[in-house]
Amino acid sequence: MRDVMRWKNAAVLALAILAVGCSSNSKKELPPAELPDITEEVTLQKNWSRSVGDGQGETYNLLVPAVDGDVIYAGDVNGRVMAIDRFSGDVKWKQDLELPVSGAVGVGYGLVMVGTLKGEVVALDASSGEERWRARVNGEVLAPPANNGDVVVVQTQNDTLFGFDAATGSQRWIYENTPAVLTLRGTGSPVVTNNLVVAGLSTGKVLALDIQRGIPVWEQRVAVPQGRSELDRVVDIDGGLLLSGGNLYVVTYQGRVAALDLESGRVLWQREASSYAGVAQGFGNVYVSLANGTVEGVDERSASALWSNDALARRQLSAPEVFSSYVAVGDFEGYLHLLSQVDGHFVGRVKIDGDGLRARPLVIGDWLYAFGNGGELVGLTIR
């Protein structure tokens, strides 16, 4: 039953599980909430827009752009990778790999890295797009590879972690985990530092390895599987990990949102939550896109909810991102919503891509970048 989680269309719940051999649920699904009318307090200006191939494609992918310096890099499902001036939208280079890309893109230290459904990892030169090296792993790569300048780390769908030499692509180490019996379709990108690589697993655990040798440093369980069926016991960490200062933020599906100490894995605080998208952090608060479409602000000092906005129920939200004094989040119809960090009320909205907006918004300074499911990459500022 492994890897049989799939997504339904926009007419049903944001997250739906198709499990072979499991009984179907005859309960009628509620439709996505209609968008409420809002009083626009903030105007998002589209400064440029660029098409990046076929975007996420027809199946569920979570391809995200990444910025390095003045360049934003993005890739599509068919292996088109583009380097774009992040201020003007001008294309610097384009590379067509003609591969089924499912993990994109990771950037840093002169490399642009992607992973594929066939277990390939490709590293390109960030300045020219020329291929530097290729390597193979033992499963689908559904999240961007990560890089600290010395080691490239790749996490596969089956929770195996690989370390490759950043210069040559030769394998340095491998660390295998036993994944959950039933998992969501996806993984988060590992977090890498000079000394550690930290990954969220399908079992609801966070694992830290020595990045040079691939040996465990600490392990922390964030969520405990509960319930009678395998569906009830799914506690994947799919939204990725967020590192801010010495704190590591994580949220699981059907589990908890928590802050961990990076060096020891000690739990600093936690509260019940269910999310497949991820978290954002800013101004002493953590923001979560819950699986039911609610956006929640959590006070780090008390681990209590500051506010909760359920007006986007069942709209298949992206992970949130902090943008100026606001929280930005996308939905299945391609709208980008801005919410106040203070109380969660809507302050602005703009349509990005009619095929939906699944990828986390990317914020660099006073610029926000949104990558629509259909391949529309947009650079926005507040007017």
Tell me the count of domains.
1
CATH superfamily: YVTN repeat-like/Quinoprotein amine dehydrogenase
Mean pLDDT: 92
CATH architecture: 7 Propeller
Assembly form of the protein: single chain
The helix tally amounts to 0
- Summarize the main sheet: 4 strands, antiparallel
In short:
By secondary structure, the protein is mainly beta. The protein has strands at 44-51, 66-68, 71-75, 80-85, 91-96, 101-108, 111-116, 120-125, 131-136, 146-147, 151-155, 161-165, 171-175, 191-192, 196-200, 205-210, 216-221, 242-244, 247-251, 255-261, 267-273, 279-282, 285-289, 295-299, 304-309, 321-323, 326-330, 335-340, 346-351, 362-364, 367-371, 376-382.
Q: Could you please describe the fold and organization of this structure?
A:
Part of the Bam complex. It is found in: Cell outer membrane. It comes from Metapseudomonas furukawaii. The chain has 383 residues and is an all-beta fold. 0% of the residues lie in helices and 44% in strands. The protein has strands spanning 44-51, 66-68, 71-75, 80-85, 91-96, 101-108, 111-116, 120-125, 131-136, 146-147, 151-155, 161-165, 171-175, 191-192, 196-200, 205-210, 216-221, 242-244, 247-251, 255-261, 267-273, 279-282, 285-289, 295-299, 304-309, 321-323, 326-330, 335-340, 346-351, 362-364, 367-371, 376-382. The strands form eight sheets. The protein has a four-stranded antiparallel sheet with strand order 1-32-31-30, with no helix packed on it. The chain has a four-stranded antiparallel sheet with strand order 2-3-4-5, with no helix packed on it. Strands 6-7-8-9 form a four-stranded antiparallel sheet, with no helix packed on it. β19 (247-251) and β20 form a beta hairpin. The relative contact order is 0.14. Mean pLDDT is 92; it is low at 1-26.
